[in-house]
Amino acid sequence: MAYLDLKNVTKSYSGVDVVHDFNLEIDKGSLVSFLGPSGCGKTTTLRMIAGFTKLDEGTILLDGEDITAVSPNCRDIGMVFQAYALFPNMTVRRNIAFGLLMKKMPKKESEKRVAHVLEMVRLQDAAERYPHQLSGGQQQRIALARALAVQPRVLLLDEPLSALDAEVRVVLRGEIRRIQSELAITTVYVTHDQEEALSISDKVVVMNRGVIEQIGTPEEIYRTPQTHFVATFIGTANQFFGKVSGGDAVICDHFTLLADDVKDFTDGQRVVVLVRPETIHVEPDQPKHDGWNIIPGEVETITFHGAVTRLGVNLHGQRVAADITVANTKPISLNQKIWLLFPPAACQVMAVDERS
Fold first, then answer.
1. 342 has which bridge partners?
2. Which residues on neighbouring strands pair with residue 34, listed in sequence order?
């Protein structure tokens, strides 16, 4: 049985569903991310789990207990906000101890608990400082420590790193994952940053327009997207629109693509073929590779990304991204004519999503 179970959860504002028929089972001790664009309903769902927003329909169960109508302070759920929400007139130690004081925990036990979480977030030396004396990253660590001090049954994090700069975000997301794993605390993490979600989650829930598009492990979400939205929202995917021809090809405007998974579509059906940049090989001379897709193009942009370089290639007026590495590719220059080649297995064929 799921530890945290959301059944048919729906929330509307002014007659418009912000979250619609949301069903999700979360295992105890796992970290699940809600990922999607702004306005997709992820924070509203988090607030319904916390009890800050009432459901219009549905049920929320926590460890078998129906908490749908339970007040927020009685749910035993910890929450970390984007804006930290620390008390400016309290030291770090008193900020962390605040929840324990509300629970009327004995002083010695409270002091021990505070010392433990300070060590966990590696800020023992900052215990007597005030929030304004800390960096943004340190303040977010203290907000996390305060939420963990009360030992909640579930930890909720609402875009906790979005206000921080890129380098600090990378460090802190690793720290969050480390702490979550050490405590084995059931965690729901809201973010619009796909790299963040894919790097720390056991499961990712991709949301769009108030509904779940796909639930899966980070690898499943990236490698086998189930909808056009997921395929184009997660990572980069080149899109080629065309019509199915036979059981192994898609006819586009200027070329025909060979693809492995066309058999489930009817002949002449309009589809989109999705190809990831990292699956495309680049050759400066026309290659011979039977059974592969080979398309000529011209290099328009070259963007260095460290381990890989991304080429923007003009294919009959369409910009296509292809990733290359220095070790595996001959030197490429702007305006150079090149050939892109990729196997049929690199093509994922989907029906055209009319919402996109």
1. 293
2. 190, 205
How far lies 224's CA from each of 40, 91, 232, 250, 257, in Å? 21, 48, 12, 19, 19
For the chain, domains (ranges, CATH) are: 4-232 (3.40.50.300), 236-351 (2.40.50.100)
Q: What is the DSSP string of 244-300?
A: EETTTEEE-SS-EEE-SS-TTS-TT-EEEEEE-GGG-EEESS----TTSEEEEEEEE
- How many C-beta neighbours within 10 Å does residue 179 have? 20
**What is the pLDDT confidence band of residue 356, given thresholds at 50, 70 and 90?**
very low
Please provide residue 265's backbone torsions phi and psi, each rounded to the nearest 5 degrees: -110, 155
Give pLDDT tens digits for 106-124: 999 999 999 999 999 999 9
Report the alpha-carbon angle 282-332-338, nearest 5. 45
What pLDDT is recorded for position 353? 62
Question: Strand pairing partners for 24?
Answer: 6
For the stretch 54-110, pLDDT in tens is 999 999 999 999 999 999 999 999 999 888 789 999 999 999 999 999 889 999 999
Rg from Cα positions in the chain: 25
The strand pairing partners of 323, in sequence order, are 310
Tokens of 35: 């990922």
Give residue 48's Cα distance to chain centre.
20
Question: Is residue 202 packed enough to be buried (19+ CB in 10 Å), middle (13-18) or exposed (0-12)?
Answer: middle
